[in-house]
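User: two proteins, same treatment. go.

Assistant:
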Amino acid sequence: MIVIIDYNVGNLKSVTGAFKRIGLEAIVSRDEKVIREAKGIVLPGVGTFPTAMKNLERFHLVSLLKERKEAGIPILGICLGMQILFEKGYEVEETKGLGFIPGYVSYMDIDEKIPHMGWNQLHKTQNHLLLKYVHENEDVYFVHSYMAHVSDENLVAYSDYGSTKVTALVQNGNVMGCQFHPEKSGKVGQNILRAFKEMVEC
């Protein structure tokens, strides 16, 4: 069972629909008992870093997510859900993140148009199970104004946006994150979610 965390900042319907398209019923919940029974956890997110963290605190989910991470449960963050996996973010104000992945998130202070919105190619920097069905240079869909700064050790794939190397996919053990939206990325996105499903089921 995969649980999509409901913390009032997620695009829950589109993420749930994406899993349904690959033949997996995902449960949307913030219930502690349900989350503890999950074999995989998805953190979606649309909004701001401080609001996301405040909501996780308000629903008593921070310590629970840390417990599940330590238990080795696969966790996938999407967009803002990926960003809060990091140690801190600088959106609106400096805010402490979950700290599951070393690094930080800051505004994309670049020459290109912000928000970064549209299709960009994925470039792999390491082999990872999440990309087992994805080929080099396949396109995924982005919508964001802030980006993660991460070490090469934790970077799985990036995209070029003009002259900027945008962190696209990250990992730290059983914790993974996509800056892009797999649920809006057509067949490529479905293949990424299918690989996550297999990681959860194995």
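Protein 2:
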Amino acid sequence: MTETRQVTTQPEDIRAVPVRHYGRWIAGVVILFLAAIVVRSVVTNANMQWDVVGDYLFDDRILRGLQNTLILTVISMLIGVVGGVVLAVMRLSPNPLAAGAAATYIWLFRGTPLITQLVFWNFLALFYPRLGLGVPFGPEFVSWDTNSLISPFTAALLGLGLNEAAYMAEIVRGGILSVDAGQLEAASALGMSRAKTLRRIILPQAMRVIIPPTGNETIAMLKTTSLVVTIGYFELMTSAQQIYAQNYRIAPLLIVAALWYLFMTSILTLVQMQIERRFSRGSSRQVVERTTWASRMLGFRFGNRGDGGGAAR
């Protein structure tokens, strides 16, 4: 009787071999070559007048205009965010009057150019020489001269803030609608009021959708403040224009303003990334994004631990 022996062999470990992406390497070399040409042409271009740029980069007038630009950006965005939340809630309200009023506001402020709104608020006295409070179709209790009440700074805030509120309303409304409606029904079944449900359940989850476009709107607002030059308010672009109107160094002063805008937008971009990272903690999307980034950088896909640590493509 022949005895059969069963020979067991251990399977070899799967070795993941990264795929060579020669096309990416060639594209990278071409991009670096073109970038070097552009940087060299900018740095060595005498028409840029980099010495003049250095002289005016930290000029007192430039820094004062920069300060006013930041103040305008912060206050206008606060007006826009608060107004946008209120308008979004009104737009989603079952009350047809509230929803209609919010829709009309958004239609009006998104449908007219921002520069037109700035000029309108600055010259509001042409339509209403005096602004007052009183009973409708009755006497006024108190009134003010419009020209003294609405300064260029006030007109800039009204134009930028109220216009931004119309855009933020749609951003917030999209974030609220992204939350599953079943959570609103569950909160209502538990006896929570609509305001409490919105504050504790809906808005915290909607922030993941609201934050990225809000960051973009903030960066856009920083650059949009340059439009207030049309109503004579002193900000970064106005300060640069006033200086080159005296010394006729137009190109270097525009470079100074551009460098400050680039610096501030870079800071805002970093802040936006940190805020997005904070609100995306615990979400599966963040894990997917990190895995996708790693796979693109390393050139292979990670597998389960049971398959030897990787899988060849």
